[in-house]
Write a sequence for this structure.
């Protein structure tokens, strides 16, 4: 997988995703939001952090202040809501931009020809764990990769890849069953073809409420990134592949359709937004149940240990939180441990994929 240095990281001295915690940390450590906090005497820093643990342990609510500028398109409001476990509580209404508000570029998707480099295309993953660069060589390799000679996604005479893009590409992207019957094409639906991001309103509990049993993530959006883009459920890759087409993802793990707009099916470094002073994996967003979602890897390139079936665990600093799955797994999180509001998805069409194996 090609490297993507497209994220805009907030240089915040953050130990937990709550604004009051930021104020407590600032007062306790007497530091600003610069690298000088790492130059404090280790004993003093550890002592101050230890004194904050009790305050921070339950600091798990969504903090709208951590979203990037422009990611929320209107003022955040609070309203009464009923969660899917029956709990009546209050929720935050977040109106998101539906387009990345950092330098995480949406696209490209399809390589123009079989000689194209990885920079000219996106990525592909089918849940097996492997992330493929969609370059020209990948297009040529499809018959071997999927053991099916029907794959011929380019003109043998010219080497040009068969691509459906523009308004037509977006229309086809909204029909994963490919009712048109066409095959052997690479699909591209750009933000420009959609007229920009599709703004959407989501409701997230003001305080997480643990659910009696975890809720599998199947056809519903499991969360939202701090750059204003939805985290989508597992992409129906088996359905897509059965039509001998590719709905390619960009290097950020995202693609678009006219129903859901631009959304992510994987979390790459494009969404690593808020650094943690203890070298924990960066905060990338929030799940629909209100728990934070951290990146898959920490700054040292290590994945978290001791994760539960949903991909989460608890520590004394952040409380319970999720870690995004590896990009090749075709999911952000496997299930939600908290209650959430049943959200009506705008798309894409087709049945939800089966539960992850």
């Amino acid at each position: 997988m090609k490297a993507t240095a497209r994220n805009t990281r907030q240089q915040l001295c953050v130990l937990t995703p709550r604004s009051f915690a930021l104020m407590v940390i600032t007062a306790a450590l007497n530091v600003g939001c610069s690298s000088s906090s790492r130059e404090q005497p280790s004993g003093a820093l550890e002592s101050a952090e230890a004194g904050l643990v009790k305050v921070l342990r339950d600091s798990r609510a969504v903090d709208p202040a951590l979203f990037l500028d422009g990611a929320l398109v209107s003022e955040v409001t609070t309203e009464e809501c009923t969660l899917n476990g029956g709990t009546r509580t209050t929720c935050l209404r977040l109106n998101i931009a539906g387009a990345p508000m950092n330098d995480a570029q949406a696209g490209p998707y399809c390589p123009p020809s079989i000689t194209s480099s990885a920079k000219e295309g996106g990525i592909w993953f089918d849940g097996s764990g492997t992330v493929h660069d969609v370059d020209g060589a990948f297009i040529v390799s499809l018959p071997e990769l999927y053991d099916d000679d029907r794959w011929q996604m380019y003109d043998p005479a010219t080497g040009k890849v068969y691509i459906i893009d523009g308004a037509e590409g977006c229309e086809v992207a909204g029909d994963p069953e490919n009712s048109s019957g066409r095959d052997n094409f690479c699909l591209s639906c750009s933000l420009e073809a959609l007229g920009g991001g599709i703004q959407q309103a989501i409701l997230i509990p003001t305080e997480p409420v643990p659910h009696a049993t975890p809720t599998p993530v199947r056809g519903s959006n499991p969360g939202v990134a701090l750059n204003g883009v939805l985290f989508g459920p597992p992409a129906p890759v088996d359905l897509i592949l059965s039509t001998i087409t590719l709905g390619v993802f960009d290097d950020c793990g995202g693609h678009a359709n006219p129903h859901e707009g631009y959304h992510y099916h994987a979390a790459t470094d494009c969404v690593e937004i808020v650094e943690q002073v203890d070298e924990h994996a960066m905060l990338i967003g929030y799940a629909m149940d209100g728990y934070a979602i951290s990146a898959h890897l920490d700054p040292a390139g290590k994945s978290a240990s001791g994760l539960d079936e949903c991909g989460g665990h608890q520590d004394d600093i952040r409380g319970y939180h999720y870690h995004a799955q590896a990009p090749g797994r075709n999911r952000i999180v496997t299930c939600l441990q908290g209650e959430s509001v049943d959200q009506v998805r705008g798309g894409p069409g087709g049945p939800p994929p089966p539960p992850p194996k």
In short: Confidence is low (pLDDT under 50) at residues 5-9, 11-59, 346-357. The two ends are 23 Å apart (CA to CA). The CA atoms of residues 272 and 284 lie 5 Å apart.
